[in-house]
Amino acid sequence: MPVYKAEAIVIRRVNLGEADRLVTLYARDHGKIAAVAKGARKPKSRFAGRLELFTHIRALLAVGKSLDVVSQIEVIEPFAPLRSDLTRLGYASFVAELMDRATADREPAPEIFRALRAALTFIMEGDAEMGGLWFAARILALIGYAPVVGRCAVCGRPVSGTAVYSYALGGTLCETDRPRDPLAATVSAAALKSVGFLLETRPDTLARLSLDRRLRTEVEGLLLRSLEYRLETKLKSPLVIQKLRQRDNATTR
Ligand SMILES: [Zn+2]
Questions:
Q1: CA 18 to centroid of ligand 1, rounded, Å
Q2: What is the pTM of this model?
Q3: Beta strands 68-77 and 31-37: pairing type?
Q4: Ramachandran bin of 25, using left for φ above 0, alpha for ψ from -120 to 50, beta for the remaining angles
Q5: Ligand 1: distance of its center to the CA of 155 in Å?
Q6: Distance 152 CA to ligand 1 centre (A)
Q7: Are residues 73 and 85 in the same domain?
Q8: What are the angstrom distances between the C-alpha of 31 and each of 10, 26, 62?
Q9: Does the pLDDT at position 251 exceed 80?
C-alpha cells in the first residue's frame, strides 16, 4: 500500500467495529481525510492518547481501498486543556463541528488549517468564547461567504449605523435594496462593527475587541445564522454551549 505523510488535527472520532476508531483529520496539505486507526481502542494500542480530539499530529497514512489507514503518529501539540475544561471543550467542539461541516474531503486549504490551529490555540489560552466567534467569522470568509458589513450587499453603497441584515443576500442592505429580502433582520451598529473587526483581525489582536454579554449574543446570533444558512444545516454544538452557559449562570448566582 502506498503511504503518505500528513500534518493534521483530529476534528472527529467515532468507534468502529470491536476495537478500531474512525478519525476525521484536517490535514494542512490534503484537506479533510477520513482514516481508520486499527486497534486504537485496545488498552495497549500504540495510538493510545495520540488520537484524542483536537490533537495536532504528524501522521503516516496508508492508502486503503475505501478508507486510508493510520500507520504511525507523532504528537506535535496535544491541546490537552481543551479536553479538561468544559467551556473550552464546548468552543473547541464548535470549531471542530464547523470544520467538519464547512470543508469538503481532500480539498487542500492550508489557510483553513492555519485558522483551525490558531482558533484552538486561542480557545486554549484566551477567552474561549471570543476564540469561537473569531473562528466563526474566519471560516465564513475562508469558504467565500464573509458577511458584508459597512456597505450594501447588493449595490455596494456605504451602510452605516444600525441596519438590516439579509442572510440570503449575505450582508447589510441599503434603504433602496431593503425590500429585496423581507426576512432581513435589524442588527445594531455595534454588532455590525464587531463583525467587521472579527473579519479583519488575527488572534494576536483579538483581545482588543471587548464585547459585553448583550453584544456577544447579538454577534454570535448573526454569525451562527449566517453559517447555518450557508451550510444548510443546524449546528449541534451551540446548543451544548448554551447549556453550559446556563449552568455557569446558575452556579454564580
Ligand atoms: Zn443597496
A1: 58
A2: 0.95
A3: parallel
A4: beta
A5: 4
A6: 5
A7: no
A8: 12, 5, 16
A9: no
